[in-house]
Design brief:
It is a single chain. The protein is α/β, with parallel strands linked by helices. The chain contains ten helices and 17 strands. The strands form four sheets. It has a nine-stranded mixed sheet with strand order 6-1-11-12-13-14-15-16-17, sandwiched between helices.
Length: about 325
């Protein structure tokens, strides 16, 4: 049996880094910063990196590198980028047996514009990843200890079908929803969240979902913490991560390192957390593993470079500051 099946998008990514990007404060909520360049000008690029990405493939890379039997349910095009994703899967040892190949659309593509601080803006062509065809999923073969569910482009019906299958097959579920799902609102998502074991989103997403301002984290956590069956995770960038298991709320600090890229940090933390749960069924341990996985990633360009290739030592686990939060 597989340990983990990740479900969601698979993309080809190009990372573009340029010192010409002018970082300034933004008056347009919810964004605090923006980067500007003049239309009609030629802008020099300092660094260009091509990789594969997408929430499902990024998470799968973490699980595979940490020794777990992993597969992915995604939709890709019958094109060079799709073939590159398949080749990369082979290199990681990730099973391709649930990949759907779409002859009518191209593989999803993202252009990630990276500022010197590591913050980024992403231009997204969703392509084949827009839709995973439920009728092409071999449900009777979809068996694993965990499903790691990422963005499905707002396809709530497919989310519901996956959760029902997981319930019937005794599979645990971690869910890191995309914007398409979050736009459905808390009233529509709450019954689904109650069916998952781990619910993971960032602070801005949690604010948008609940309708509570980003400054009132107490109220956000209070609204969401009782919904997932086990753990609520809220990542907060440089502010670390908050977890709620029952009535216990913990805060995990970041590890201070030079940051060159934040793309995929949420995927790295969430998949690292679930990997930690798989290894040792303990939330504090999982928080530390997720933190180290994201720490490695933000020091490299790309959404997979820097991910853990082995679990952190006990000494490094203990270096992550995890404390009760009130």
């Amino acid at each position: 049996m597989l340990d983990v099946i990740t479900i969601g998008s698979a993309t080809k990514d190009v990372f573009v880094k340029s010192a010409a990007l002018e970082i300034q404060e933004s008056d347009t909520p919810p964004f605090a910063l923006e980067a500007c360049f003049p239309l009609g000008a030629k802008v020099n690029i300092d660094e260009l990196t091509f990789q594969t990405g997408g929430g499902a493939t990024n998470a799968a890379a973490t699980f595979a590198q940490l020794g777990f039997k992993t597969a992915t349910v995604s939709s890709i095009g019958e094109d060079p980028n799709g073939r590159e994703i398949c080749t990369e899967y082979k290199s990681y040892g990730i099973s391709e047996k649930f990949l759907q190949k779409n002859t009518e659309d191209q593989t999803a593509y993202s252009i990630i514009i990276v500022a010197g601080s590591g913050e980024r803006t992403i231009l997204v062509y969703r392509g084949a990843s827009r839709e995973i065809d439920p009728e092409r999923i071999p449900w009777n073969k979809l068996k694993a200890k965990w499903f790691y569910l990422t963005s499905l482009g707002g396809d709530i019906e497919l989310v519901g079908r996956i959760l029902e299958h997981a319930k019937n097959a005794g599979i645990k579920v971690a869910w890191n929803p995309g914007n398409g799902e979050l736009k459905r609102g808390i009233d529509e998502l709450e019954p689904l969240i109650r069916k998952v074991d781990i619910f993971n989103l960032n602070r801005e997403e949690a604010s948008a979902l609940t309708g509570i301002g980003t400054g009132d984290l107490n109220a956000i956590i209070a609204r969401l913490k009782g919904l997932p069956k086990r753990v609520l995770l809220i990542t907060d960038g440089m502010g670390g991560t908050y977890s709620a298991e029952g009535e216990e709320v913990l805060h995990s600090d970041i590890i201070e390192v030079p940051r060159v890229n934040t793309t995929g940090a949420g995927d790295a933390f969430g998949s690292g957390f679930v990997a930690g749960i798989l290894r040792r069924d303990d939330v504090r341990h999982a928080l530390a593993v997720g933190t180290w996985n994201a720490t490695g990633l933000v020091q490299e360009m790309g959404a997979k470079r820097g991910l853990l290739i082995a679990f952190p030592s006990d000494e490094n686990i203990n270096k992550v500051t995890i404390e009760p939060w009130k």
